[in-house]
TrEMBL record, chain B:
Keywords: Cell inner membrane, Cell membrane, Membrane, Transmembrane, Transmembrane helix. Its main location: membrane. The keyword Transcription does not apply. This is TRAP transporter large permease.
TrEMBL record, chain C:
Pfam families: DctQ. It is found in: Cell inner membrane. One of its GO terms (molecular function) is transmembrane transporter activity. One of its GO terms (cellular component) is plasma membrane. The chain crosses the membrane at residues 12-35, 47-64, 85-107, 122-144. This is TRAP transporter small permease. It comes from Candidatus Galacturonatibacter soehngenii. The lineage of its organism: Bacteria, Bacillati, Bacillota, Clostridia, Lachnospirales. It comes from the Bacteria.
Amino acid sequence: AGKGSSSEVESNSNETTKTDSKAEVAATQGKYTLKIGTALSENDPLYQALENVFEKNVEEQTNGEVQVEIYSSSQLGSDEDVLEQALVGAGVGIITDPGRLSNYVYDFGVLQAPYIADSYEEVLKLFATDVYKDLCSQIEQQGFNILSFNYYQGERELFTKKPIVEPSDLKGQRIRSSGSQVVTATLEAMGANTTVLAWSEAYQALQQQVIEGVEVHLSAAVGSSMQEVTKYLSFTGHQQLLTALVISDAWMKSLPEEYQTILIDQSYKAGTAASEAVLAKNEEYLRTLKEGGIEVIECNKEAFKEACNIAYETLGYTQIKAKLDAELGR
Amino acid sequence: MIWLGLTFIILLAIGMPIALTVGISALVFFVIENVPVQIVVQKMVSSTQSFSLLAVPFFVLAGNLMNETGITSRLIKFATLVTGHMRGGLAQVSVVLSCLMGGISGSATADAAMESRILGPDMEKRGYSKGFTAAILAMGGLITSTIPPSLGLILYGVTGEVSIGRLFMGGIIPGFLMTVALMFAVAKISKKRSYVKEHEHFPTIKEVLKGLLDNIWALIFPVILIVGIRFGVFTPSEAGAFAVVYAIFVGVFVYKELTFKVMVECLKQTAVDLAVIMFIIICSNAFGYAIVTGRLPQTLANLIIQTSNNKYIVLTIIMIFVFIVGMFMEATANVLLLTPIFLPIITQYGIDPVHFGVMYMILITMGGMTPPIGVTMYTTCSILECPVEKYTKESIPFVGAIVVLLVILAVFPQLVLFLPNLIYGA
Amino acid sequence: MVKKFEELLSKIEISIVCLGLGLLIITVFAAAILRFFGIDMSISTDLAQLTFAWVSFIGADLAMRQNKHMGVDMLVNRFPVKLRNAIFLFNSLLMLAFLLFAVYYGVNLCIINAARKYNTLYISYSFATASCPVGCALMCLTVVKNIVTYVKNFVKNDYSSIEKGEIIA
Ligand code: NA
Ligand code: NA
């Protein structure tokens, strides 16, 4: 239990936790065990990349010395809980987003700020900057280690009960926020009212008219059957959701250096595989949504972009954004 | 994992409170597995950070308030009017009362305790045996906890991430069938032992209508609750807060029986009732982390899957296991510790989590009524000063009636699923 | 002196828990009503959860004072009274160890992860975590009191207090 805090990296929560049918029965002969948590369900492409690439390769290349166990559907706890476990030195990791890391290094949130990037390729560029590297070293001092920050989950769009074309259409609409400062500020800048809810409660809340819309990426929307409880999809693309595999720095340092390298390399590989799978599946997700009765709305993306400028001021990210822009030459 | 189990059993056997038994064995696991022990504290705290779980204090308080607001006494009058002419009249009254209470109260033990205090002495005066009285008053609580609101279904929904709204809808028909089943059992026994009627005449339609009107405040509450949840006026947790406010409103403004002083007493009572449940939940959460990271659910699932491919056989094995564990373990701990293990298995066999949940919670809650260990049983037996042996003997027909009901529910899933599908869509 | 302190403590605890329960009802009910009229009280969830943590942990000691935490005493009750006293003593010592551990690591966790925030309250999550060490510290006092009773029983060779079932612990 203990799913109090909402999860930004949304999971297919309508399905109950499934048992890993091919689970190797507690195979912990290895010297080191890394337990990786995610809010996602087992049929998400990201989970599968973790299993088929990261777990498989790490165990192979370390001759089974490092055992990887992957826990779906927040079985290890909320993202915040697992980060806390990592902080006290447990051999755990979590797939999480910049918004969550901003609790520890506030400026991390800028990587999830609205329209900071317009596509997968562009958002990857952010993670090659010195600004990002500086943030990384700051987070390491806090006790975390980012294996790689390249798990792309898609761009965030609006799913609503009423058609949303302009920011003014969002006036008075209650849209679900994860509660993360970046998300709330973004939604408010776009013109909406926010209601903080766990993602697992969003489906019911929509069904019961507690909220009138959500902002989410396509794979999670399909995972939680948003086509059943909302009518319209506006491609606002206000965020590119790139997530990281974050583990405990203390645990990482306890490994021999060659193993550390293997973990970093394989996490990067798994991230690439996951991102490609998500991109490849986006068409399919969209089809599922349309077949489920979702109508796609031509929205005024430029107007939303314009409206979101205020969010940088609210969040205090104007300076760091300027630094990023300068470095990227835009 | 072995140490976890061993510590657990030993501590349980030497009378350590359940909550601490669970907490200490979890700690032993963490130390042996070399997991940072701060996680024990984290898990203990995070168990309280669930919005859905907030329904628990609310429905405990609402149940406690009912008795002080005049709602309960009116319901008793009505139940007597409707069933008093039957053989074993007062026993029938107690069953119907449990059903009526079910619409507001969510706890089997609270209902059994209240009925033992109010109806118990009168039943003995009418010549019912002590064991029979204790048994039917305890088992009646099962109806209260099956008809929504239900603490057990809330806990199951939270632990298994199953829609609480659907679970509530799913409990309605089984709750009524259970009322019928227990009334049938009472009738049979009463006829054999010629237990007395409360009055001779059949209730007239006019009397019943007047009775309904007198009780309208209590009777419409469950309707408000379900409509409110369905149409998004409130979530199940908020419905709990609403139930409390409603009970206070009726007690102060309609029946004018609730004073400030009584309300404070009620809060104090609730504080302790709640703390007992919550401390078990708190410690179980740390234990749950040990179970999950020890991969116990997968191990057990593999074991069960190897046993059989037939969903009814698997369901039966699980249900028998739950029944036996329920005889010895406290219900709250059972829901929290067993749900993560069994629910994934059940869904793999294509059994609906709402269908399973309703049957499973009936069985787990009944664990509190079956000897040798059971809180509901202890409560009624201690209030009525009834020896457990007598209780045990007299409870057999009622337990039998429930088991028959469970078999029927298992074979006809629609009995559970019809209402949730009707209201929420399939 | 000790008795007076105990009574005071118990009064404070019960007040905190009752006020907490009241606050829970008000926040959750008000949020539902306000939302119905389109006003969002987004802090209500976090505020309620924070309150719930304190109500639960302080309440746990309240229940412990009244011996309400249930255990399985079927087996133990069949033992001779002296052995029973010994088992109760053993259990209480074990409880004390567990609770002291929770106090120590609870405080530790509050400090280590002070950076973790409640989403909408903009205060540290440590305010919730702190409920655990505080509640457990209170329970430590209660358990110590019980331990003293059991030891006294041995010294005086008088077990009437546990025979009457006054202390079940
Ligand atoms: Na009920
Ligand atoms: Na039992």
